[in-house]
Design a protein that fits this description.
Blueprint: H1 10-28, H2 42-60, H3 74-85, H4 99-115, H5 119-123, H6 137-145, E1 156-159, E2 162-169, E3 185-189, H7 212-217, H8 219-229, E4 237-246, E5 249-258, H9 265-269
Length: about 280
Protein backbone atom coordinates (compact mmCIF):
# COMPACT_ATOMS: atom_id res chain seq x y z
CA UNK A 1 0.00 0.00 0.00
CA UNK A 2 1.24 3.51 -0.81
CA UNK A 3 1.99 5.75 2.16
CA UNK A 4 -0.55 8.51 2.88
CA UNK A 5 1.64 11.55 2.28
CA UNK A 6 -0.93 14.35 2.31
CA UNK A 7 -1.77 17.53 4.10
CA UNK A 8 -5.33 17.28 2.91
CA UNK A 9 -8.40 17.50 5.02
CA UNK A 10 -10.18 14.54 6.56
CA UNK A 11 -12.41 14.24 3.48
CA UNK A 12 -9.37 13.83 1.25
CA UNK A 13 -7.89 11.21 3.60
CA UNK A 14 -11.13 9.23 3.45
CA UNK A 15 -11.08 9.36 -0.35
CA UNK A 16 -7.48 8.09 -0.38
CA UNK A 17 -8.36 5.21 1.93
CA UNK A 18 -11.22 4.24 -0.39
CA UNK A 19 -8.83 4.21 -3.36
CA UNK A 20 -6.40 1.98 -1.42
CA UNK A 21 -9.27 -0.32 -0.43
CA UNK A 22 -10.17 -0.74 -4.09
CA UNK A 23 -6.53 -1.63 -4.88
CA UNK A 24 -6.52 -4.36 -2.20
CA UNK A 25 -9.85 -5.66 -3.41
CA UNK A 26 -8.43 -6.05 -6.91
CA UNK A 27 -5.45 -7.99 -5.51
CA UNK A 28 -7.72 -10.23 -3.43
CA UNK A 29 -10.17 -11.13 -6.22
CA UNK A 30 -13.60 -12.66 -5.72
CA UNK A 31 -13.65 -14.88 -2.61
CA UNK A 32 -16.48 -16.93 -4.13
CA UNK A 33 -14.08 -18.13 -6.86
CA UNK A 34 -11.80 -19.83 -4.30
CA UNK A 35 -11.48 -23.59 -4.86
CA UNK A 36 -11.07 -24.15 -1.12
CA UNK A 37 -14.04 -25.40 0.87
CA UNK A 38 -13.75 -22.40 3.17
CA UNK A 39 -14.49 -19.15 1.25
CA UNK A 40 -15.21 -16.85 4.19
CA UNK A 41 -11.85 -15.06 4.00
CA UNK A 42 -8.36 -15.32 2.57
CA UNK A 43 -7.00 -16.20 6.02
CA UNK A 44 -9.40 -19.15 6.37
CA UNK A 45 -8.62 -20.37 2.83
CA UNK A 46 -4.85 -20.17 3.43
CA UNK A 47 -5.20 -22.13 6.66
CA UNK A 48 -7.17 -24.82 4.81
CA UNK A 49 -4.46 -25.12 2.16
CA UNK A 50 -1.76 -25.35 4.83
CA UNK A 51 -3.68 -28.10 6.61
CA UNK A 52 -3.91 -30.11 3.37
CA UNK A 53 -0.19 -29.65 2.75
CA UNK A 54 0.61 -30.87 6.26
CA UNK A 55 -1.56 -33.96 5.69
CA UNK A 56 0.16 -34.67 2.37
CA UNK A 57 3.53 -34.36 4.05
CA UNK A 58 2.48 -36.94 6.62
CA UNK A 59 1.46 -39.37 3.82
CA UNK A 60 4.77 -38.90 2.01
CA UNK A 61 6.62 -39.87 5.17
CA UNK A 62 10.21 -39.13 6.14
CA UNK A 63 12.57 -38.97 3.16
CA UNK A 64 15.35 -40.47 5.29
CA UNK A 65 13.36 -43.74 5.42
CA UNK A 66 13.53 -44.22 1.63
CA UNK A 67 15.36 -47.37 0.50
CA UNK A 68 16.66 -45.52 -2.54
CA UNK A 69 20.19 -44.21 -2.70
CA UNK A 70 18.78 -40.73 -3.37
CA UNK A 71 16.96 -39.27 -0.36
CA UNK A 72 17.15 -35.57 -1.20
CA UNK A 73 13.51 -35.39 -2.27
CA UNK A 74 10.68 -37.60 -3.53
CA UNK A 75 11.17 -36.60 -7.19
CA UNK A 76 14.86 -37.61 -7.17
CA UNK A 77 14.02 -40.93 -5.51
CA UNK A 78 11.30 -41.68 -8.06
CA UNK A 79 13.66 -40.86 -10.91
CA UNK A 80 16.20 -43.28 -9.45
CA UNK A 81 13.58 -46.04 -9.41
CA UNK A 82 12.54 -45.31 -13.00
CA UNK A 83 16.16 -45.41 -14.13
CA UNK A 84 16.69 -48.80 -12.46
CA UNK A 85 13.56 -50.23 -14.10
CA UNK A 86 15.31 -50.16 -17.46
CA UNK A 87 13.87 -49.57 -20.90
CA UNK A 88 10.29 -50.69 -21.51
CA UNK A 89 11.39 -51.78 -25.00
CA UNK A 90 13.43 -54.58 -23.37
CA UNK A 91 10.30 -56.31 -22.03
CA UNK A 92 9.74 -59.86 -23.30
CA UNK A 93 6.00 -59.22 -23.47
CA UNK A 94 4.33 -58.44 -26.79
CA UNK A 95 2.87 -55.33 -25.18
CA UNK A 96 5.54 -52.72 -24.41
CA UNK A 97 3.42 -49.58 -24.23
CA UNK A 98 3.66 -49.43 -20.43
CA UNK A 99 4.41 -51.58 -17.40
CA UNK A 100 0.69 -51.73 -16.64
CA UNK A 101 -0.06 -53.07 -20.14
CA UNK A 102 2.72 -55.65 -19.84
CA UNK A 103 1.45 -56.83 -16.45
CA UNK A 104 -2.06 -57.10 -17.85
CA UNK A 105 -0.73 -59.25 -20.69
CA UNK A 106 0.99 -61.62 -18.26
CA UNK A 107 -2.07 -61.71 -16.02
CA UNK A 108 -4.26 -62.55 -19.00
CA UNK A 109 -1.98 -65.47 -19.89
CA UNK A 110 -1.94 -66.86 -16.35
CA UNK A 111 -5.72 -66.41 -16.16
CA UNK A 112 -6.12 -68.56 -19.28
CA UNK A 113 -3.91 -71.24 -17.77
CA UNK A 114 -5.79 -71.20 -14.50
CA UNK A 115 -9.20 -71.38 -16.14
CA UNK A 116 -8.34 -73.94 -18.85
CA UNK A 117 -10.39 -77.10 -18.48
CA UNK A 118 -9.56 -80.74 -19.08
CA UNK A 119 -6.77 -83.16 -18.31
CA UNK A 120 -4.59 -82.30 -21.32
CA UNK A 121 -3.18 -78.96 -20.23
CA UNK A 122 -3.30 -79.78 -16.52
CA UNK A 123 -1.20 -82.91 -17.09
CA UNK A 124 1.47 -80.89 -18.88
CA UNK A 125 2.07 -78.13 -16.34
CA UNK A 126 3.83 -78.67 -13.02
CA UNK A 127 2.89 -76.08 -10.41
CA UNK A 128 3.41 -77.42 -6.87
CA UNK A 129 0.75 -75.36 -5.08
CA UNK A 130 -0.54 -76.24 -1.60
CA UNK A 131 -4.25 -77.02 -2.06
CA UNK A 132 -5.05 -77.06 1.65
CA UNK A 133 -5.53 -79.52 4.47
CA UNK A 134 -8.57 -81.30 3.01
CA UNK A 135 -10.21 -82.04 -0.31
CA UNK A 136 -12.87 -79.34 -0.59
CA UNK A 137 -16.31 -79.67 -2.13
CA UNK A 138 -15.27 -77.23 -4.87
CA UNK A 139 -12.18 -79.29 -5.71
CA UNK A 140 -14.20 -82.51 -5.66
CA UNK A 141 -16.79 -81.02 -8.03
CA UNK A 142 -14.05 -79.87 -10.44
CA UNK A 143 -12.55 -83.37 -10.45
CA UNK A 144 -15.90 -85.05 -11.07
CA UNK A 145 -16.64 -82.60 -13.89
CA UNK A 146 -13.23 -83.22 -15.46
CA UNK A 147 -12.40 -79.50 -15.52
CA UNK A 148 -9.75 -79.76 -12.75
CA UNK A 149 -10.07 -76.04 -12.08
CA UNK A 150 -7.05 -74.56 -10.27
CA UNK A 151 -5.31 -77.94 -9.98
CA UNK A 152 -2.11 -78.96 -11.75
CA UNK A 153 0.48 -81.74 -11.57
CA UNK A 154 2.60 -81.26 -8.46
CA UNK A 155 -0.14 -79.56 -6.44
CA UNK A 156 -0.72 -81.19 -3.07
CA UNK A 157 -2.76 -81.49 0.10
CA UNK A 158 -1.20 -81.87 3.55
CA UNK A 159 -3.52 -84.17 5.49
CA UNK A 160 -2.70 -86.09 8.68
CA UNK A 161 0.94 -84.92 8.40
CA UNK A 162 1.28 -86.53 4.95
CA UNK A 163 1.84 -84.60 1.71
CA UNK A 164 -0.48 -86.10 -0.92
CA UNK A 165 0.66 -84.91 -4.36
CA UNK A 166 -1.20 -84.96 -7.67
CA UNK A 167 0.70 -87.14 -10.18
CA UNK A 168 -1.80 -87.22 -13.05
CA UNK A 169 -5.29 -86.37 -14.26
CA UNK A 170 -7.60 -88.96 -15.86
CA UNK A 171 -4.72 -91.47 -16.00
CA UNK A 172 -7.08 -94.46 -16.28
CA UNK A 173 -9.87 -92.76 -18.25
CA UNK A 174 -11.35 -95.04 -20.97
CA UNK A 175 -9.07 -97.89 -19.88
CA UNK A 176 -9.88 -101.35 -18.51
CA UNK A 177 -11.84 -104.36 -19.67
CA UNK A 178 -14.79 -102.38 -18.32
CA UNK A 179 -14.26 -98.86 -19.62
CA UNK A 180 -13.67 -96.27 -16.91
CA UNK A 181 -15.63 -93.09 -17.68
CA UNK A 182 -15.22 -91.33 -14.32
CA UNK A 183 -12.89 -88.32 -14.19
CA UNK A 184 -10.23 -88.61 -11.51
CA UNK A 185 -6.80 -87.59 -10.24
CA UNK A 186 -3.98 -89.94 -9.29
CA UNK A 187 -2.47 -89.04 -5.92
CA UNK A 188 0.89 -90.24 -4.58
CA UNK A 189 2.32 -89.53 -1.10
CA UNK A 190 5.63 -87.66 -1.09
CA UNK A 191 7.22 -90.15 1.31
CA UNK A 192 6.71 -93.78 2.26
CA UNK A 193 3.66 -94.29 4.44
CA UNK A 194 5.27 -97.29 6.15
CA UNK A 195 7.52 -100.25 5.37
CA UNK A 196 6.23 -103.71 4.48
CA UNK A 197 7.60 -106.81 2.82
CA UNK A 198 6.58 -108.20 -0.57
CA UNK A 199 6.57 -111.80 0.65
CA UNK A 200 7.64 -113.70 3.73
CA UNK A 201 10.27 -115.52 1.64
CA UNK A 202 12.36 -114.86 -1.48
CA UNK A 203 9.72 -115.87 -3.99
CA UNK A 204 7.74 -114.39 -6.86
CA UNK A 205 5.23 -117.21 -6.95
CA UNK A 206 1.76 -116.01 -7.85
CA UNK A 207 3.13 -112.72 -9.17
CA UNK A 208 1.94 -109.42 -7.74
CA UNK A 209 -1.62 -110.62 -7.06
CA UNK A 210 -0.31 -113.63 -5.14
CA UNK A 211 2.09 -111.62 -2.99
CA UNK A 212 1.73 -110.86 0.71
CA UNK A 213 1.98 -107.18 -0.22
CA UNK A 214 -1.16 -107.36 -2.37
CA UNK A 215 -3.19 -109.69 -0.18
CA UNK A 216 -2.33 -108.19 3.22
CA UNK A 217 0.20 -105.38 3.46
CA UNK A 218 -1.55 -102.81 1.26
CA UNK A 219 -4.47 -102.71 3.68
CA UNK A 220 -2.78 -100.08 5.85
CA UNK A 221 -2.20 -97.82 2.84
CA UNK A 222 -5.82 -98.18 1.77
CA UNK A 223 -6.91 -97.15 5.26
CA UNK A 224 -4.64 -94.09 5.25
CA UNK A 225 -5.89 -92.95 1.83
CA UNK A 226 -9.49 -93.43 2.94
CA UNK A 227 -8.91 -91.49 6.17
CA UNK A 228 -7.34 -88.63 4.20
CA UNK A 229 -9.90 -88.28 1.40
CA UNK A 230 -12.99 -90.21 2.49
CA UNK A 231 -14.29 -93.49 1.12
CA UNK A 232 -16.58 -91.64 -1.31
CA UNK A 233 -13.51 -90.21 -3.08
CA UNK A 234 -11.62 -93.49 -3.58
CA UNK A 235 -12.29 -94.67 -7.15
CA UNK A 236 -12.53 -98.36 -8.00
CA UNK A 237 -11.20 -99.03 -11.48
CA UNK A 238 -9.92 -102.01 -13.46
CA UNK A 239 -6.22 -102.85 -13.78
CA UNK A 240 -4.47 -105.76 -15.47
CA UNK A 241 -2.27 -107.32 -12.76
CA UNK A 242 0.22 -110.20 -12.93
CA UNK A 243 -0.86 -113.40 -11.20
CA UNK A 244 1.68 -115.93 -12.49
CA UNK A 245 5.46 -116.15 -12.87
CA UNK A 246 7.48 -118.71 -14.83
CA UNK A 247 11.28 -118.90 -14.62
CA UNK A 248 11.34 -115.52 -12.90
CA UNK A 249 9.25 -113.80 -15.58
CA UNK A 250 5.58 -112.78 -15.55
CA UNK A 251 3.58 -115.40 -17.43
CA UNK A 252 -0.03 -114.56 -16.66
CA UNK A 253 -2.37 -111.86 -15.53
CA UNK A 254 -5.99 -110.88 -15.07
CA UNK A 255 -8.21 -107.82 -14.87
CA UNK A 256 -8.80 -106.90 -11.22
CA UNK A 257 -10.76 -104.31 -9.28
CA UNK A 258 -8.27 -101.77 -7.99
CA UNK A 259 -8.22 -98.76 -5.67
CA UNK A 260 -4.75 -98.36 -4.12
CA UNK A 261 -1.71 -100.06 -5.68
CA UNK A 262 2.08 -99.91 -5.73
CA UNK A 263 3.40 -97.76 -8.54
CA UNK A 264 4.60 -99.52 -11.68
CA UNK A 265 8.00 -99.09 -13.32
CA UNK A 266 6.40 -96.91 -15.97
CA UNK A 267 4.90 -94.66 -13.30
CA UNK A 268 8.17 -94.29 -11.39
CA UNK A 269 10.69 -94.14 -14.25
CA UNK A 270 8.59 -93.24 -17.27
CA UNK A 271 9.45 -96.54 -18.97
CA UNK A 272 10.71 -100.07 -18.37
CA UNK A 273 13.93 -100.27 -16.37
CA UNK A 274 14.05 -103.73 -14.78
CA UNK A 275 11.29 -105.56 -16.69
Amino acid sequence: MNKLLTDDTGQEILEELQRQSGYLSNLQGNLASLTTADKTSLIAAINEVKGSADAASTKVGTLANLNTGSKADAVTAINELLTNLGAISSLDTATKASLVAAINEIFGFTKVLKESSGAGLHNNLYRGKNLGTALTSVQSAAIRAGTFDDMFVGDYWVINSVTWRIAAFDYYLHAGDTELTTHHVVVVPDTSLYTARMNSSNTTSGGYVGSEMYTTNLATAKTQFTNAFGSGHILTHREYLQNAVTSGRPSGGAWCNSTIELMTEQMVYGGKVFG
